[in-house]
Amino acid sequence: MLVRTFEINCPVGLHARPAAVLVSEAEKYKSEIVLRYKGREMSAKSIIGVMALGVETGGSIEVMVNGEDQEAAMKRLESFFEEEIRNL
Amino acid sequence: MLKGIAASKGIGIGKAAVLREMDDLQNLAGKTVSEPEIENETARFKNALAQTEKTMEAAKAKAAEIMGEAEAQVFEAYRMVLRDPVFISTVTGKMNNGHYSAEAAVLRAVDEIKAMFLSISNDYMRQRAEDIGHVGKSLINQLLGKAQVDLFHLDEDTIVIAKDLAPGDTVSLDRKHVKGFAIEKGGETSHTAIMARTLEIPALVGCGPDIFKIAAGDPVIIDGETGCLIHHPIPCEVEAYTAKYHTDMEKKERVKRLKDLEPVTTDGRHLELFGNIAKPEDAACVLEKGGTGIGLFRTEFLYLDRNSLPTEDEQFEAYKKTAELMGGNPCIVRTMDIGGDKKLPSINLQHEENPFLGYRAIRICLNETELFKTQLRAILRASIYGNLKIMFPMISGVSELRAAKRILEEAKAELQRKGIAYRQDIQVGIMIEIPSAAVAADLLAKESDFFSIGTNDLCQYTLAVDRMNERISHLYDPLNVGVLRLIKKVIDAAHENGIKVGMCGEMASDPVNAVLLLGMGMDELSMVPAAIPYVKEAVLKSSYEAAAEIAGKVINMADSQDIMQCMKEGFYAGKDF
Prior knowledge:
heterodimer; A: alpha+beta; B: alpha/beta; Enzyme I, Chain A, domain 2; Glucose Oxidase, domain 1; TIM Barrel; eight-stranded parallel β-barrel; 22 helices
């Protein structure tokens, strides 16, 4: 299992479009992808779960990836959280 | 006979298709099953998910085709909910642990998730809570095997009867066969009403609960001009309305052919006919109807239904797109007119007792100058791509106009410093909608490049009538001689100072009123695009001299009934428009 922490750097926090894009990207991987924020855990493949976390701008989340394609998945998530999210 | 609010013009004759809300949801939510049945319930749920997704896919494709990709996005949100692992496990959890039936489990899961979303207080989450509610409803329908009326495939000549229509319902509409809507809820500005006008489908809204006395298949006639709904019409009614329907259709075809003609009277006076728009894409619709400009671009769409303010670049793109679509034709961009009744989550607006007399439009802009300047810079930057003009709403006097122009100059200076191109001589006009501005129009004209009279507000402020208030809405009358005199005063003040004057209120979209306004000296009329061909026909068939004579007469008539009569006799004489 791979674990990394990211800071959320998009103006609206992790809902609306950023959440939708994250979920559609997460869905492409077989690995289990779990987000932890303020002690709660939700699947990154669930739009409801991601939004229910209510991650605000500047918040930091822990991302746990576990499965056969975990390296590829984490790499994808890194570029999502570190780059793309700023433009969403 | 039932009476509703006439929301979209035209006669609709057909058979009723009734969309019912589900009535007994509460009873369903308590239904449990025995242990051996759970497997079967799970299978029913999975099947309903698959079927509903299919329906949504089809709706999405159709929405993209009819209303554009942006509108279709709502179905993408629905689809995501249908596939959502948390949603699915919440439902199956209710079946496995609580022994609930599939229907009960869906209802409970939806309520739980909605509550979770609503506890995060922001408008975006509330919207998503609604999406989930909508998905839940579709699933329940599927599970109950309730033949929800399939709006995609309606029988020929259908009048849709419903409590209300969701955006999801209206995009999936079978436009070939629907002949009208009659809706229990809603007012003139509800989603359904606006959609019906855009699609040019006759519609009544606010018909009340009695509308559900109509059964599926019953013959129904709706009159989108008077607001009447006739249930089980008798043969002579059918005959009369069918004749009216055919006359309407012939007229529609007839005025369509005028598209490329210049709007000029028989004695050679030109009147500009423009369209009112709310989104950049609407510009195409104005051109298609033969409009040669945009007299009112409502920019509120950029601000509503979102948490953050639109960025300068985002606004720039929208204005640029509009300017380019209009190719050189004028486009009057009204700076944001928000406040009071239109909520804006991104700035703090308090509840007000009198929103129409409150903190709105230019009053917000002059206070929140950064918000205002962002919009002005975006318009200025886009101005080099076409012929944009700036219009300030809700100006009550010269000092406000000067304050707004000072901020505009600051915005220009900022662009200048950065070396960003904009049209230096961009025209700046004002909306005349507050009586004090109309009375002092001569002073305002010296500092404006043009006027546009907003009759909806001018009329409501002058007559002190809230037209949403049913008990007094009959007092809302643009032909009240006091209102007409104010309009005349504004036109004369504009011309004495060498500037043009237009109108962008609803009054301008009525062909008879349009001829009166022409006679009063108006230079330009702007209206909902669908009305342009009808007004054009009236202009083509009228003489300016005769219209001016009548305008001179009615301004001294005390009773608006007499004014109406005088206009009809004078304008219609031997003509049909």
